Amino acid sequence: MGDLQGLNLDLESALGDLITVTSPVSPGYRRQYSTGSTDGVEVFHSTPRFVRDTSKYWYKPGISREEAILFLKDKAPGTFVVRDSNSFPGAFGLALKVQQVPANVMPKGGDPQVELVRHFLIEPTSKGVRLKGCSNEPVFGSLAALVYQHSITPLALPCKLSLPQSDTPDVDVVDARVETPNSASQLLAQGAACNVLYINSADMESLTGPQAVAKAISDTIAGRAQPPKTTVVHFKVSSQGITLTDNKRKLFFRRHYPVNTITFCGKDPENRRWTQKPDDSGFSGSTNGTIFGFVARKSGSSTDNACHIFAELDPDQPASAIVNFVAKVLIGPGRIIKTSVS
Questions:
Q1: Which intervals hold domain SH2 (predicted)?
Q2: Cα–Cα nearest to 198, from 242, 235, 231, 244
C-alpha cells in the first residue's frame, strides 16, 4: 500500500493518535524460508494495523505439539497457539480448541478434551502463508494477517480464532507489554487508520445498505469511458466517525463523516475489484483491490444519502478488515452500524 507509515507527524497529531502497528514478532522469533526462489520470504513482515500486535501472546515458536495440547485442552473454544512446525521446516502449526470433534473424525478414546484440540498446518508460499489443503483459503501476506482475518470469520477453520487479551503464564512466556484492546470503548479511544484508494462518491437519495454500495460501484464502472479521478486517502476510523485526508490534496484536503450520519459500511455485494495502473493518484504500483464503501447522510439532510467507494491497496489491510473495524468501533448505546462482509 504505497506509504503505509501514514502522514507526517504534524498531520498525524492533527488527526489524533493512530494504531499503526508495524513491529513484527521480536527478531529472535522471525523465520525465513525458501519457496523455490533464492529470495527468502519473511512471514512476519507486518501486522494488521487495525488492532494492536497480539502475536507475542499467541506465537509460541518453541513449544511442542504435546505442550500445545496440554495448554489448550481445558481452554474455551477458539483459544489457539501457533508454533514452529518440527515436521515441515519453515511451516507453522496452528493448534485450536474447538466446540466439538468434526463429524468426519473417528474418536480415538482417552481424554475427550484432547480430541477437541485440532491441528492445522500453515504453509509458506511465494507471497505469504495459507492454511494447507484448504481450497477456499486465500494467501495472506503475513502470519499476523492470517490470524486476524480468522478472528473475524472462520473460513475453513471449525470456529473463529479468539485473540488473547494477555499473555498466558503457563506456556512459553515472552514479553507481554503490549495489551490488546478488548472492548469497543478501547478501540474507539485509540482509532485506526491506513491508506486506501478513493474512487468516487455518488448521490443515493434515500438508498442505503448493500444496494447503495452496489449501485454506486455500478454507476462508477458504467461511466469509466470518463474514469473518475482517484486519489490515495488516509482512511481513519475513530469515535467521532470516519475522516478522509487526501494525501496529496489532489481532490480535497480533508472530509469528516460524523458517526451519527453513517448508516452502512460493506464490501461490494458482487465482489468486484478495482484495477488501475500507476498514475498521479498517489501510489507507485498498480492495484487490483477489493471495492468497499460506506453510506452517510448528507450534511443538513435527514433522508438524502451519499455512498463513498474505495479500493484496498494492501493485502495486509484488506477491505474485510476495514469493514469489520468500522462495525466494531462505530457502536454506541442502542446503536449498531450495519455492515456487509460477505
A1: 58-165
A2: 231
Residues 14-26: tens digit of each pLDDT: 222 222 222 223 2
Residue 199 has which C-alpha cell?
474512487
Other C-beta atoms closer than 10 Å to the C-beta of 10 total: 8
Place of cell 522469533: 29
Q: Is 172 left (phi over 0), alpha (psi -120 to 50) or beta?
A: left
Considering the segment(s) 20-180 as one domain, its CATH architecture is: 2-Layer Sandwich (3.30)
> What's domain 191-340's architecture?
Roll (2.30)
pLDDT at 281: 52
**What b/e sequence results for 232-267 when a residue is b if at least 16 CB atoms lie within 10 Å of its CB, and e otherwise?**
bbbbbbbbbbbbbbbbeebbeeebebebebbbbbbb
d(CA 298, CA 257): 9
**pLDDT on residue 98:** 95
**Closest to 262 in 3D by CA, of 232, 224, 227, 299:** 299
What is d(CA 42, CA 54) in angstroms, rounded to the nearest whole number? 18
β-pairing verdict for 338-340 and 262-267:
parallel
Q: Over 80: is that where the pLDDT of 106 sits?
A: no
State the Cα–Cα distance between residues 240 and 78, nearest whole angstrom: 32
User: How big is the CA angle at 75 (ends 162 and 153), to the nearest 5 degrees?
Assistant: 20
The model's pTM:
0.47
What are the structural domain ranges in the chain? 20-180, 191-340
- Largest alpha-carbon pair distance within the chain? 68
